[in-house]
Design a protein that fits this description.
2 copies of one chain form a homodimer.
Chain A lengths: L6 H8 L3 H8 L7 H13 L6 H8 L2 E8 L5 H16 L3 E6 L4 H13 L2 E7 L12 E4 L11 E5 L1 H14 L5 E6 L4 H16 L8 E5 L4 H13 L6 E4 L2 H13 L9 E3 L5 H5 L6 E4 L1 H16 L9 E3 L1 E4 L7
Parallel strand pairs in A: 1-2, 1-3, 3-4, 4-5, 5-11, 6-7, 6-8, 8-9
Antiparallel strand pairs in A: 10-12
Helix pairs in contact in A: 1-2, 1-3, 2-3, 5-12, 7-8, 9-10
The first copy, chain A, binds a DNA duplex (16 and 16 nucleotides) through helix 2 and helix 4.
DNA sequence: CTGTTAGCGCGTTCAC
DNA sequence: GTGAACGCGCTAACAG
């Protein structure tokens, strides 16, 4: 398959043992300046590329990490991946990107493959809360482990605060019949945003009976649009929508437009994530900004620390969020 | 690192040799029905997971492919990756995603890493045209190899036609002083789109002197916006813009708006790719649709064929494009 | 400073 | 139908 020259041929050409070659490659010391130069020269001449697979077998792991993501087509996740990969690459790691399409079976399959590949770390982004028991250092983003044995690290944005900020904005601008649109599955970040929603309603003196929830099996633009249309067809009188993500907000926006509702006069809308499209939309969408750069940086930092043997302290790291008010809530 | 039980322990527990275990795992035949059942049972009991690294060392390659992409944050590339990964995963391959940030040095580094990892295939998406000599089956998307020795497969959308369609649309709607915005680097897909632009101008009887070109070092929204502002500040009188990609079109759009130009009355704009945001933009942007699904499917198909030993015929595969007319060109 | 050697876990001849 | 034995390319003792 590959004509790959091996460490053995290098050692022969350089007139040293393979052990010495290995040492200079890994800069493990215990060789003279001259031998180093000679070996390096032979390596360059032959365009020698160490076989990382053989090395991996020997040291029992590859310097690779797997990232499991529910939807790689979503800019929010993409920016996260970008930042994680950038930081890990700088530290010498390559990255598997595993798209799960929110499918538990696919996720399991990927996780198993990653383990058989002997990756040295795993990152889970959002997704459903089923048990996952990886035996490699793991970092969770916007995902809470219910497993008491989970020894990894958790990084999440301040979802409760975010849900609160978005809902309060809707309330302050006059909305009172506010719909919260979320996943039908148990996803921690959405549950936390819901808690923030409830907190804001309570603060404005609205009883629990005023909570309005729509759950989606298909957690994307299409699903949100279809659900919103369904509600409108059934005579929904909501005057505010807090969607669990920006794409859901856009789906609601489109459905409401098609039903002749004016945004924000008739219905005010707030989303979550602050992806680019919300700012470019015909009626720019109010949203909650997540600091993806900082989150991605933290993920790489914590993961690298964990792979070096450091034990995470078990407390989730919360990254602050802030509201980005736009026209969809403020005429 | 991992407590991984090995094929050896399985063989002991099942009372057979490791050779037999290997045979049933790989379904190589030459074992009885009973031994198969017994081995399979022991494997299940121990939750045995084959060590793909050891296997890889033995068979001299991993069942992984590397995808090199210039900008993973761009929805166009992301959709391509999604489709490629989905198809490859179905065939049992895992995928490395390598973001190059349009940086040649980073790309080289990734390619080298991929080869040291012994991936069995490589996919290059767009990017600059420097020489690349990978010794594994390779598929190029929207990127032409100048190396006569290149034995891989090339898949590209019909860029000349796309450039022609976009420019003709601008001309038909009345624009005459049309700017083509592109990369300052040599990127085949942009060069082809430029050829289409020239073809359309010629068809409308405009002399070569009427060609207007703006090249970008920073090939994204920010870069395009800055360049357009620069041109406007210098007194540009363009009444049409054909941008090499949608993000560039959006950058131009924003700059033109800030300078008080009305779209499409004063300046008509067309982009390329048909990413979601163009449809949601305040003034929806006319664009050229690329069939990413079909392209991704083809990439996986051709790559798998190549990895099985089939020789590509050397001719680039051209996927058709079509114009999506929107308000930015048609009041 | 340097070389020899023993595996890492697996697939694959080659005998039986 | 089954097993023993070798080696893929490399690292890490260990001996010198």
């Amino acid at each position: 398959m590959q004509k790959s020259v091996s460490i053995k041929e290098i050692s022969e050409q350089a007139g040293v043992s393979i052990a010495t070659v290995s040492r200079v490659i890994n800069k493990n010391g215990r060789y003279s300046k001259e031998t180093e130069e000679r070996v390096l020269r032979v390596i360059a001449e032959n365009n020698y590329q160490p076989n990382l697979v053989a090395k991996g077998l020997r040291v029992k792991h590859m310097k690779n990490v797997g990232i499991l993501v529910p939807d790689i087509k979503n800019e929010f996740f993409t920016k996260l991946i970008y930042e994680i990969e950038r930081n890990l690459f700088a530290a010498g790691y390559e990255t598997f990107v595993c798209n799960t399409d929110e499918d538990e079976a696919i996720e399991r399959h990927h996780v198993q493959m990653m383990q058989m590949q002997r990756v040295c770390g795993l990152v889970f982004i959002s997704g459903t809360a089923h048990e996952l028991t990886a035996q490699v250092p793991t970092v969770l983003i916007d995902r809470i482990s219910t497993d008491p044995a989970f020894g990894g690290c958790m990084i999440t944005s301040d979802n409760v605060e975010g849900g609160y900020l978005a809902t309060r904005e809707l309330l302050e601008q006059g909305a009172r019949r506010i719909l919260f649109m979320t996943s039908s599955k148990q996803v921690s970040c959405y549950e936390e945003r819901y808690a923030g929603y409830c907190k804001a309603l309570k603060e404005f003196g609205l009883p629990d009976t005023e909570r309005r929830i729509a759950t989606l099996d298909v957690l994307n633009y299409e699903g949100a649009k279809a659900k919103m249309k369904e509600l409108l067809a059934a005579g929904s009188d909501v005057d505010g929508v807090f969607a669990g993500s920006d794409w859901l907000a856009l789906g609601c926006y489109k459905a409401l437009c098609e039903y002749g509702r004016r945004i924000p006069e008739d219905v005010r809308i707030a989303g979550y994530d602050d992806i680019s499209i919300t700012a470019f939309n015909a009626i720019p969408i109010t949203t909650v900004h997540q600091q993806v750069d900082e989150m991605g940086r933290l993920v790489a930092e914590r993961l690298i620390a964990a792979m070096k043997g450091e034990k995470p302290d078990g407390n989730p790291i919360r990254v602050p969020v802030y509201l980005v008010p736009r026209k969809s809530t403020r005429g």
